[in-house]
Amino acid sequence: MEDLIKVERLSKSYGNLKAVDDLSFTVKGGTAFGLLGANGAGKSTAIECILGTKKADSGNATILAMNPISNRKELFESVGVQFQEPHYQENIKVGELCEVTASLYKMPVDYRKLFSEFGLEDKTSALVNELSGGQKQRLFIVLALIPNPKVVFLDELTTGLDARARREVWKMLSRLKEEGLTFLLTSHFMHEVETLCDKICILKRGKAIFYGTVSDAINQSPHEKFEDAYLWFTDEEVEQYENI
């Protein structure tokens, strides 16, 4: 399988704070990659640098063999993004938001089909601000899939969902992965990571401290469960890093 995302020695600082420190990894097509770490470990900053929405201080990142800054327009057609704190109009109807989003792409997916799959079929006429937290989260995932992307970035994709809804989203994403879609995701739900991710990278204070499979992480720790192994790797986060 081809590497669709390549990150090479990526670094980003805010003053004296090293948010991302010499980060390198690859993501193969048709797989799900988990970028993990405690709050403030640098996950969101890393994603923003990979997408080109923030400029890295050094290093390189490519998506689909393209530079995310110089090839932004072309990449825009092939990449879906769901940010942890999306900024959409609150006083627009859900269906209208999806129509506007679909109009930005050459070959969008029919959002009505996605609504049916994500349990939002009766919310087309509702305002965005009328949705519950879980419904909004599912809507944001739908918006990331509307472009009919080859690669999707999902930042805390199931935050706000109850256990049943979370599992339904996992089933949908697993099916899409089987169909060839590639995911890079962040998550604080370790069972979600175990269910979806083929490989993971654990960050601590901006630096990669583990890269491999979930099984590798367990084997390299003194624990038998992945959640315990993850906590063992990430036991020293400090408050000054909470916003990166």
Concise synopsis of the structure shown:
33% of the residues lie in helices and 25% in strands. It is α/β, with parallel strands linked by helices and 244 residues long.
The radius of gyration is 18 Å
Shape: globular
Cα end-to-end separation: 32 Å
Instruction: Please trace the helix and strand order, writing H or E for each element.
Output: EEEHEHEHHHEHEHEEHH
- SSE class: alpha/beta
CATH superfamily of the largest domain: P-loop containing nucleotide triphosphate hydrolases
Tell me the fraction of residues in β-strands, as a range.
Answer: 25-35%
Please tally the helical runs, counting DSSP H or I stretches of 4 or more residues: 9
Keywords:
244 residues, alpha/beta, Rossmann fold, 2 domains, six-stranded mixed sheet, three-stranded antiparallel sheet, 9 strands, globular
What does this entry look like structurally?
The structure is a single chain. The protein has 244 residues and is α/β, with parallel strands linked by helices. It folds into 2 domains: 3-78 and 150-241, Rossmann fold (3-Layer(aba) Sandwich), CATH 3.40.50.300; 86-149, no CATH class. Helices cover 33% and strands 25% of the residues. It has 9 helices and 9 strands. The chain has helices at residues 43-51, 72-76, 94-102, 111-117, 133-145, 163-178, 190-196, 214-219, 226-233, and strands spanning 3-14, 17-28, 32-36, 58-63, 79-82, 151-155, 182-186, 199-204, 207-212. The strands form 2 sheets. The protein has a 6-stranded mixed sheet with strand order 5-6-7-3-8-9, sandwiched between helices. A 3-stranded antiparallel sheet has the order 2-1-4, covered by helices on one side. β6, α6 (163-178) and β7 (182-186) form a beta-alpha-beta unit. The longest helix is centred in the last third of the chain and has 16 residues, at 163-178. The protein is globular and about 50 Å long.
